[in-house]
Amino acid sequence: MDWKYTLPDVSCAACVNRVEKVLGDMPGVESAQVNLLTKELRVTADEEEVSASVLEEKLRSIGYPGVKKDDQISAVLKIEGMYCAACSARITKVLERLPGVESAQVNNLTGQAKVLYDPALVGRREFREVIEKAGYTLLDEEKPVEKEAPLLSGELLLAIIFTAILLVVAMGPMVGMPFPEMPPLAYALLQLALTVPVVYVGRRYYVVGLRSLFQGAPNMDSLIALGTGAAIIYSLYAIFMIAQGHAHFAHQLYFESAATIITLIKLGKTLEEISKKRTGASIEKLMDLTPQQATLLVDGEEKLIPAEEIRRGDILLVRPGESIAVDGVISSGVSSIDEAMLTGESLPAEKVEGDSVFAGTINLTGSFEMEARGVGEEMMLTKIIRIVEEAQLDKAPIARLADIISGVFVPIVIAIAVGSALLWGILGKDLTFSLTILISVLVIACPCALGLATPTAIMVGTGRAAQKGILIKSGTALERAKEIDIIVLDKTGTITEGKPVVTNFVRTGSLPEEEILELAGSLERMSEHPLSKSIREYAPASLPVENFENIPGHGIQGVLSGKKLKIGNERLIPEAHKYLPSDAARLFVEIDGVLEAYFEVEDKIKESSYAAIEAFHEMGLEVVLLTGDRQETARRVAQELGIDEVRAQVLPQDKSDIVKELQKDGKVVAMVGDGINDSPALAVADVGIALGSGTDIAIESADMVLVQGDLGKVVSAIDLSRKTIRNIKENLFWAFFYNTLGIPVAAGAWYALGGSLLNPMLAALAMSLSSVSVVTNALRLRGVNIKEIG
């Protein structure tokens, strides 16, 4: 169960961490996530173990008296028995009719429905009632969705055997196969006996299909039930006539057509289910990455324990070749780790003591000890899987047309079938001809192809993106990325490395370079400023410092080896004005009143940024640099990278206004950023893209997350979006084309033009292949080339 709260009193990152930790430690709580920007808290919990009111009381007890639970919550329901777009449309309709349900998103591909509702008005009991009344099954939360394919192997084999024998009995004499002479009635009863096991195998079509038909919401099962049922009923009538002495009715039996239709559709569904499972293979691979066991260190002793028993704070031993079980920090040792599954980066990451490591990644070289920091729902891998699964539940806008058509498709097909059969009867054709028309139209129509066109491609596309380190949160974001006109880039941490480094050291006085560096490095050791860190790394030293003073906005000063040293800007050292202005930031060094040197410090541009900007231009995108940095610095970076437009010295609260300004002419704008100051702009952009190396707030506000924090991944995301939407359009075209062509042919249009009449068995084969072809086309995305930088 998912609950949402508003926390007006949460005000800092420390507050967020405290709330998430306190709630995360409560029994029954799977995860708790706070968005500092929107002040929203989302909790996933087992409502049988913990209630919403208990959570509210806990929050008030730790200092959040203003906590307010939102009336609406969301839940993901597992539903068995959905096989076509009409099924999902039916379930969507019955759920949304319930009082208290705001929306329901149903995906027949995954067998799930995401429902947004008010728990005070409606709940799981009502969901179960309407779902089961509609002819489907609401599964228990702990029970996995059982797809049809694994259950079919024995039954499908039975259907194939009996259908093959039936075809020999019914069709053999017509093609010259030797067959013993039999009385007409015995011949007809033999065909009936061979048909019964096949009808049993296809019993679901009659149970669910007829129930749906009587409830006024016919689906694909209804079409199959009506088509084969008509053939069987007419054949039973023929047996009755044979028994009355009319032997010529032995040539008007349709048992073999009914059995063949059921068997072919069962075979097609089996192939479809196998293909559909392959669409989710990317997520299954991610789920299988973590090991089942891990080595726990207790007082120096090694103990092998199940991975699910690992707790936060446990010390684990990871040997070469092993997968890491949970997220954590290396406490002892060094190693190279393959993080390709997480970041898409093929080169191993070098890790030392204090570095973070993640569940599912593979230790390549040295053994190390690590402290568990993120377990269960807190792991990066778990969050990735959840984001991708939610995206696969979401429907892209392009799917709406298919949904609308699917909702009325089956009734229209039934009307066409009945109307065509009656019309041919009026035109003078016999009952056998009209019956063939009726069965062919009912069987050839395929709402499945329409329903599968979008979700299969989205499932494969988002799974492929996750393997590349790109997390797409919704189908809407995936579709919208294809339409991007302008891409807005934050500078610090997005285009640049996000940490300043010394790029040049210039002496302006008489002291030796070695002495200046030793004094400067020692003094900077006392400061935690990011610029101080860059000088410490450039000139490591450890002379003792006396009378240290930090002067905010100016710099630092102190006494070292009897010398008075100042390091800072021109406000601290007025003589520095003669070395300004400068493109790069300069930190000046004054020793005993003399300006002896200055450091040039820059935030270096990432190597991937050059190729990424070039790729954006090749894609026809306009690139805008949006930063709070100085005009001079921003323009220098833009000129070096070939960026089209610069907006510099922009306050955080104004970034979103600039994005809105760019959207005014109908342009689709994407924003790429990584900091808290980027969050408002990420939220208002048509597509917000956050770097995984950035803040949690930026990630929460974005539509896509790049795990590696590499700008080149934006290129891959846009390219994948374009190729996925193209695939969806191909699928929809085929689905519409197939039905637009197939139904008229089955209705006799081709016959009216001088062609032959469509055999119902061929219609069943065509229907089965149409669904399989749509899924197979979506699977092509697994191997399609995606633009990559670096």
Would you write up a description of this structure?
The protein is elongated, with a radius of gyration of 34 Å. Helix 13 runs antiparallel to helix 15 (447-467) and helix 20 packs parallel to helix 25. It is of the alpha+beta class. The strands form six sheets. It has a seven-stranded mixed beta sheet with strand order 18-30-29-28-19-26-27, sandwiched between helices. A six-stranded antiparallel beta sheet has the order 10-9-11-17-12-15, with no helix packed on it. Strands 20-25-24-23-22-21 form a six-stranded antiparallel beta sheet. It starts with a strand and ends in an 11-residue tail after the last helix. Mean pLDDT is 83; it is low at 142-152. Helix content is 47%, strand content 20%.
Protein topology:
Layout: E1 2-6, H1 13-24, E2 29-35, E3 40-45, H2 52-61, E4 68-69, E5 73-80, H3 85-96, E6 101-107, E7 112-117, H4 124-133, E8 137-138, H5 149-171, H6 184-201, H7 203-214, H8 220-243, H9 255-279, H10 281-287, E9 293-298, E10 301-306, E11 315-318, E12 327-332, E13 335-338, H11 340-343, E14 349-351, E15 356-357, E16 362-363, E17 368-374, H12 380-393, H13 400-426, H14 431-444, H15 447-467, E18 470-472, H16 475-481, E19 486-489, H17 491-495, E20 496-507, H18 513-524, H19 530-538, E21 546-551, E22 555-560, E23 563-568, E24 585-591, E25 594-605, H20 607-618, E26 622-626, H21 631-641, E27 645-647, H22 652-663, E28 669-673, H23 679-684, E29 687-691, H24 696-701, E30 704-706, H25 712-746, H26 749-752, H27 760-779
Parallel strand pairs: 19-26, 19-28, 26-27, 28-29, 29-30
Antiparallel strand pairs: 1-3, 1-4, 2-3, 5-7, 5-8, 6-7, 9-10, 9-11, 11-17, 12-15, 12-17, 13-14, 13-16, 18-30, 20-25, 21-22, 22-23, 23-24, 24-25
Helix pairs in contact: 3-13, 5-6, 5-9, 6-8, 6-9, 7-8, 8-9, 8-14, 9-27, 10-15, 12-15, 13-14, 13-15, 14-25, 14-27, 15-25, 15-27, 16-25, 18-19, 20-25, 25-27
